[in-house]
Amino acid sequence: MTPFKPGFAHNGNNFYAELRQEIEHYFTSNKKAKTGNGKLYRKTAFALLFVPALLALSFSTAFWGNSPMWVNYVLFALLGVMHAFTGFNVMHDACHGSFSSKPWVNNIFQHSLGLLGSHAPIWKFKHNVLHHTWTNVDGVDDDIAKSPMLRHCPTQTFKPAHKYQHIYMFGLYAISTIWWLFGNDSIKYAKGKVNHQSMPKMTAVDHLTFWGFKLLYAGVYIAAPIYLFGAFHGLMLFLTLHVVLGVLLSVVFQLAHAVEGMHFENSLEYSETDDKIANEWAVHQVLTTNNFATKSPLATWFMGGLNFQVEHHLFPKISHVHYPNINPILIRTCEKYGVKYSEMPTFWKAIKSHLRWMRLMGKEEHPRLSVA
Ligand SMILES: [Zn+2]
Fold this sequence. Notes:
Layout: E1 7-8, H1 15-29, H2 38-60, H3 70-96, H4 103-109, H5 112-115, H6 120-133, E2 137-138, H7 165-191, E3 193-194, E4 197-198, H8 204-229, H9 231-257, E5 265-266, E6 276-277, H10 281-287, E7 290-292, H11 297-302, H12 309-314, H13 323-337, E8 342-344, H14 347-361
Parallel strand pairs: 1-6, 2-5, 7-8
Antiparallel strand pairs: 3-4
Helix pairs in contact: 1-13, 2-3, 3-4, 3-9, 7-9, 8-9
This protein binds zinc ion.
């Protein structure tokens, strides 16, 4: 059965209209474009030059003679960090159309996801449509659809193993990108669906890019290391890259929605005919999303503004480079309309909160059935 995708009530709240007006005023009065700027393009150049440089350096060690293998493990761990950096900063903005004001530039740079082994059209449906519209709506948002292995919210079925999910989840995060690239993508591609939701029909170019990038990725990151360093080290290097990448991506995305104080909805509670989520869409986004470490320039630089997730969820078409500047406008407007804005001061405090939340969800009985 296809779970119903509930609508959002229009409760006469002027919150989003006023917020949009204020943000619009910020960009017009400062004569700024909402899309990427020199800062973003310098980051892009850094990412797209550094990744091949690391690869070339690693592969060249095969011809050095007595180069120690640990050098390659360090280089592949760094590749994991740089793949996360490219995903956060380049791919994410381009897939949302905020990288550039020119659609063809976004179309090119969205395929940086292909270079990371996945596929932009599939990810855009899963992320831009399902996750960004029905954030934390159980049954529709793919980011919290990890059942039965992980239980993210009170409406998901409890299994005894969930008692330990706050411990074993890091093992799942470590292999999450291998499963994403080779398992999950293949299932979505074969079924034409993300979980129960049908994706738009793929074009011939989509099919070509899916297979082209998968083959290229497998050639560069699996076949070439095996050829150069032998089957054991080749596969272990691949695993090293993905453990680093998987943990970084999972943790950063989880800190935005699966922490204490976040609101969750259950799509099964809404009928297809009339019921709507009581909050309007913009208020729902604020209640289901958490900011963290917004005062850390390093976190903001590395995570592509994903530490400003509330701004990102409300304005995904605005490039992340502008989020620190519009944050005070958001906080002010939330205060004015009594909308609960969530922020954790540091990355570590957000991680601890994620741990506590997953531990709470790992209990059959817990004090809160619904968190508002
Ligand atoms: Zn996004």
